[in-house]
Amino acid sequence: MSVININSSPEISKKYKNLRILYAVGPESVIEAYHSWSLGQDSPSQVSITFSSQFYEVCRELNAKGFVIAQSEEEELFQDEQFFIKRQRPPLKAKSGFLYHWGQVLSGLNLLGYALKFRVNIIIADSGTTHWFVLSLFKILGINIIPSLHCLLWHKYLPQRLGEKIVLALSKNLFKSQSLGILVASEDIRKQIFQLTGDKNQAICHFFPSYRQTYFSTIDKPQFRTNSNHPFRVLFAGRIEADKGVFDLLEIAATFAKEGRNNIIFDICGSGSKLDILQTKVEALNLTSNFICHGYCDKEKMQKIYSQSHVVIVPTRTEFIEGFNRVVLEAILAGRPVITSSVCPALDYVRDAVIEVPPNDVQSYADSLTEISQNIHLYKQKQQACIDLQTQFYSQSNTWKTAIKSIIQGHRI
User: pLDDT band at residue 4, thresholds of 50, 70 and 90?
Assistant: First the structure.
C-alpha cells in the first residue's frame, strides 16, 4: 500500500489558519477515502488517487477546516476536529427535463446552506454537483468559488438543447469573473470555456488524474503473438451503459464469431444499469467464452486482467459527455495500446499510443481490432509509445491537489 505524505509546512499553516473550505463532490466514497488517507494509504477501491483524499491533503497542508458534501444513494456522516464529511442523496433524482434542472438548483441551495452554516470562505465544486450559475450566489455572499470541471460543458458532437443553452448563458459570468480560478481535466474543457466566455475568463489550471507507479509496476508486460491459437484479449473497463459503447463491442464480438474468429476475447469489467441486459444478450448469442462480463472488479482483480490483456478499447458514444476518461490513461500506464475516438478528451495527451477511429463507427472499431491483433510491428510501436508517455502522468506538478493549492496560494483569502 502506498504511503502519503501528510506533513504540512509551518509557514503555510500559519498563513491559512482561518481557511475553511467546502468541497462538493459527486458519488465518491469520500469517507472510505478519508479513513485510508488518515492511515497514510490509498483508497482500496480505486485505481487512481481519489480527489477527496487530495482535498484532505490540501487541508492538512494549509491547516484548513475541510467540509465535504458528496452525492450518494446512502446517507453517511463522519466528523473530527478538522473535517466534516457527509454523503447524502440529491434532492431530486431525474436525468433530464425540468425536474433535473430544478434538482440541480436545489443541490446548489443545499450546498449554500452548508457554506453559511460552516462559515466557509472557499467552495470547490465538481461537475454535476449543481448548475454552475447557482454558484454565483456564493460570490454575492462573499464566498470564493473554484469550479472543478471533470466533464465537458456540453456534448462535443451534438447540438445544444434549449435547457443547456439557458444554463450556459446564466453560467457565463461565473467563468468570466466570479471564480477564484478554474480547474479543468482536459484541453477540450478549456476550449469550451473560451468559447463560452469569448476568451475573457479567470485563470485556468489543468490537472491529470493521479496514480501510484507502484500499482502499474506489478502488471505483467503484454505477451503478443500472431499465432491464431493464442488468444488476443481486449479489455473494456467502465460503466456498463449503452452510451459507453458496450453493446457496440457485443456486435463486434458476434460478427467475429460468425466469421469463425474465436481468438479475440473481450474482457468486460464494470457494473451499471445495463449489466443484466448485456449478460442476457451474451448468453443468447452463445458468446460467453469470448465475451466475458466480470462485473465490478477491485484493484487486485483489475491488475490480473490487465496482465493478461493486449489492448484496451474505449468506445464511448457521442451521447455521453466525457471530460477526460481515466481508462485511456490507465491503459497507457499499464503499457496497453488503446483504441478509441475523439469523444474521449484524453486522446489529446496520448495520441501516439492510440489507434483513433471515428466516433460511433462500429465497423472502424472492428477493423482496428483486426489490424492491431495481426500486425506485430504496429502493436510494438503503440506499446513503446505507452512507455514514452507515462512520466508526465506521475508528476506531482500535474495533480488536482497541486492545481488547487496554486489557486489558493495565489490569492489572499
Answer: very low
Tell me how far CA of residue 314 lies from CA of 98, 211, 256, 325, 358, in angstroms.
Answer: 32, 19, 18, 9, 12
Quote the distance between the C-alpha of residue 216 and its chain's center. Answer: 18
Q: Per-residue confidence at 224, pLDDT binned at 50, 70, 90? A: confident
Side chain identity at residue 52, one-letter code: S
153's CB contacts (< 8 A; 6+ apart) are: 168, 171, 189, 192, 193, 196
What pLDDT is attached to residue 17? Answer: 60
Give DSSP secondary structure letters for 157-200. Answer: SSPPPHHHHHHHHHHHHIIIII-S-EEESSHHHHHHHHHHHTT-
Helical H runs in 232-298? 246-258, 275-284
Q: How far apart are the C-alpha atoms of 214 and 200, rounded to whole Å?
A: 41
- Contact status, residue 224 vs residue 335, Cβ threshold 8 Å: no
Cβ burial of 1 (10 Å; 0-12, 13-18, 19+) is: exposed
Is 63 within 8 Å of 80 (Cβ atoms)?
no
**What pLDDT, in 10s, does the model give residues 323-346?**
899 999 999 999 999 999 999 999
Q: In this structure, what C-alpha cell is assigned to residue 138?
A: 456564493
Give the closest residue to 234 by CA, choosing from 293, 158, 311: 311
Q: What is the DSSP letter of 50?
A: P
Question: Which residues 6+ apart lie within 8 Å of 269 measured at CB?
Answer: 235, 236, 237, 238, 294, 295, 296, 297, 301, 302, 305
Give the count of beta carbons closer than 10 Å to the beta carbon of residue 223.
Answer: 9
Residue 277 · residue 241 · CB < 8 Å: no
The single-letter DSSP state of residue 311 is E
Provide the residue type at 338 as one letter: V
Calpha distance 69→124 (Å, rounded): 11
Cell of 295: 462485473
Compute the CA torsion angle 328, 330, 333, 337 (nearest 10 deg). Answer: -40
What's the pLDDT at 255? 97
**Which DSSP category does 221 fall into?**
P
CB contact set of 87 (below 8 Å; sequence gap of 6+): 30, 31, 70, 71, 72, 74, 75, 76, 77
Identify which of 159, 106, 109 has the alpha carbon closest to the alpha carbon of residue 136.
Answer: 109
pLDDT of 5 reads 35
Only one residue has cell 502493436, namely: 379
